[in-house]
Amino acid sequence: MLSTIRRHESKAHLADLGVTGGLATKIATAEHRIAAAKGLPSGTPLLTLRLGNKGSGDPLFAAAPDDDKAVTFKAYDRNGRAHELATAKAPDRPVLLVDVDVERAVNLGMEVIRQAMPAPKVAAAGYWATQITRVRVSDVQEPWFKGDAEIFTLVSGFGLDGTVRVDPVTMPYLDEEDTTYSPNQLLVHWNVYKYDLADVVMMEDDGDTNYKALAQALIAALLTIVDGGAYIPLVSAVFDAILDGWYTDDPDYVESWYTLAEQGSGVRNGASGRGWIGTRPYWVREL
Prior knowledge:
Blueprint: H1 2-7, E1 11-13, H2 21-37, E2 47-53, E3 60-63, E4 72-76, E5 82-86, E6 95-100, H3 102-116, E7 127-137, E8 150-158, E9 164-171, E10 185-189, E11 197-205, H4 211-222, H5 235-242, E12 253-261, E13 266-269, E14 275-284
Parallel strand pairs: 3-6
Antiparallel strand pairs: 1-2, 2-6, 4-5, 7-10, 7-14, 8-9, 8-11, 11-12, 13-14
Helix pairs in contact: 3-4, 4-5
């Protein structure tokens, strides 16, 4: 089994491991419950067996703890004997963890949010976008048993029809703290916005996000805001949605940026002081 995980780049979905019988039924039931808990469509494999720690010798097996404040958690060897593992330091032995595929969940969750938002009016022909040339944040590296962080960003502004909209953006590359990345990723597409300003809130999903509830909370918090003919910062309204309980655990706020401008460029420090982004205008040409 350990060799199977290694061939699958350190993780494999439980549904792909050839499990049959009663265990396969239990896995299918667990998959259905997890999808429901995260507000995602059922039928998508989300449970993985992940190599949480390489080490040497016989592997231990454990469920990934869902409490970031836990000091220890139990793992089991091939004979069913329990071992107490410290969350602060990885053991010398390999550890195989049953966990949620957070990267897949984030991608699916962004689509849930997009579909929940009203269809945008789009300006014709080419348009300006804001490109991230560099980005660096702190406090995103997960404990050894959690694996890499999965970062997503919520871009909010007033649509062309004057209603508030939120556009989710995944950042799968941003998984190490205090590391500068140069993704050249397009963050804001200005052809769907009325004003030349938008706000950005960066979040981290470590497996506990309910995306359907998040989308509903965002709609409730944002779509009641009336366009008064001038741009209104929306970060506080996004925070209100976050605090409304769309996480089953504590929300993992990373950073936020107020009033990014369409033609803005250069380095912008985040509001909390835990990160910065370098941006520049980018012209998206019509084909």
